[in-house]
Amino acid sequence: SSHCYRWACANAVKPEEPASGQILVRRSIATRRRRCIRCSLQCSAIVRRLQHSTHMSSHRIWMGDSPGQHYNADTELCETGQCSEFTPCTEKGQKVDNDIYKSYYAYCNATGEPTYIQKCPGTYQLNVTSQSCEPICQEEGVLQDVQDCTKYYKCQYIYIDDETKFLIRELLDCPANTGFDPNNYICVSLTEYPDCKTELEEKKRTGLVKDET
């Protein structure tokens, strides 16, 4: 079997060579889904272990370390750019954030290394103080509320004086019979957003929200 230690591969089987310019994707027959992705045919490789909370499955990424190449965890493709890093661990069990992929965080093991990696839901990010995934404003705009598709967060600056400003977050409701579309950042009719309509109907059925129809 294969496992990861210090971001290196131990007892891993090198995948067969894909055609030039292609990315090889392999899946094991085990219950947990695994993918080995090799960025470059000419470089050596390292294996990183990812565990996505959305699927509760383990991912092994066969990743090239050629100069200027890195694996983009969001697009699942190899791209030009620098590799991301996690904030150094200070204690076992601590969650540390990533400097590039803000939705991702890692658990620190007993030796002070980031090991299992998970992703916050939606656009949420790790609040290192509370150690929880939260909607965090980085700039003015809107963010989805992953707990309720009929709500959204508005991020805006409050100015104290010409030199002092604070970015605050306000939870707002979409108009009746609409839901917040996280792809277009606007409230749309529930007929155009079937996932939200299904979610709302389920909450009404279970009594989590009041049925006003």
Automatic annotation (TrEMBL):
Residue intervals of the Chitin-binding type-2 domain: 134-198
GO cellular component, as recorded: extracellular region
Pfam families, sorted: CBM_14 (PF01607)
GO molecular function: chitin binding
Spans traversing the lipid bilayer: none
Leader peptide range in chain numbering: none
InterPro entries on file: Chitin-bd_dom (IPR002557), Chitin-bd_dom_sf (IPR036508)
Name assigned to this protein: Chitin-binding type-2 domain-containing protein
Phylogenetic lineage: Eukaryota, Metazoa, Ecdysozoa, Arthropoda, Hexapoda
